[in-house]
């Protein structure tokens, strides 16, 4: 059922794409449904060019006939469509479960608008049940880990920080970095946490996407509903 809901949200977002758009194309299982939906429209004559947020997305989109470029060639985009691991009523997001958070955030920030696609299980009252990914450089990683733990302690958050693994070795992002997953349960003040994390030397980026999404299509048993930030 979850895949069916993801597909519904993805297909709804694909309807918002018009010819001539410069698109950021997200990463993850829901975003892959969007790539397939977009490819069908491209086959029917839709003229767009996309910037993928991961090597995996690039391979899939290219195999389906979607024209691709890079942010170096096209540094300003019209729209990014991407999934989320969690989203709240203000469209604050946790992303990065698939490990592409750095590129996803760069592409989203370069876009005029961002549409989030998700199934209803990703809609939460307060962020934090999904572990927050924190991307770090491998150099000095233990010092970075201790600095993150000190920040979490200072903010009264659980100091449960796990290095993401791929088998017996640390998971490596497309950018050559590692990821710590912070199991925080409830993030009452995502803005303060987001600002503090990026000040830690060694932290490249984190999975809190704040003030980036302009709309979300969330699919549930009763159809696809549109969510816009309550603050907008």
Automatic annotation (TrEMBL):
Its EC number is 5.3.1.6. The keyword Protein transport does not apply. Catalyzes the reversible conversion of ribose-5-phosphate to ribulose 5-phosphate. One of its GO terms (molecular function) is ribose-5-phosphate isomerase activity. Keywords: Isomerase. It comes from Roseibium alexandrii (strain DSM 17067 / NCIMB 14079 / DFL-11). The active site is at 104 (proton acceptor). Pathway: Carbohydrate degradation; pentose phosphate pathway; D-ribose 5-phosphate from D-ribulose 5-phosphate (non-oxidative stage): step 1/1. Homodimer. The keyword Cytoplasm does not apply. GO terms for biological process: pentose-phosphate shunt, non-oxidative branch. This is Ribose-5-phosphate isomerase A. Belongs to the ribose 5-phosphate isomerase family. It catalyses: aldehydo-D-ribose 5-phosphate = D-ribulose 5-phosphate. Substrate binds at residues 27-30, 82-85, 95-98, 122. Transmembrane segments: none annotated.
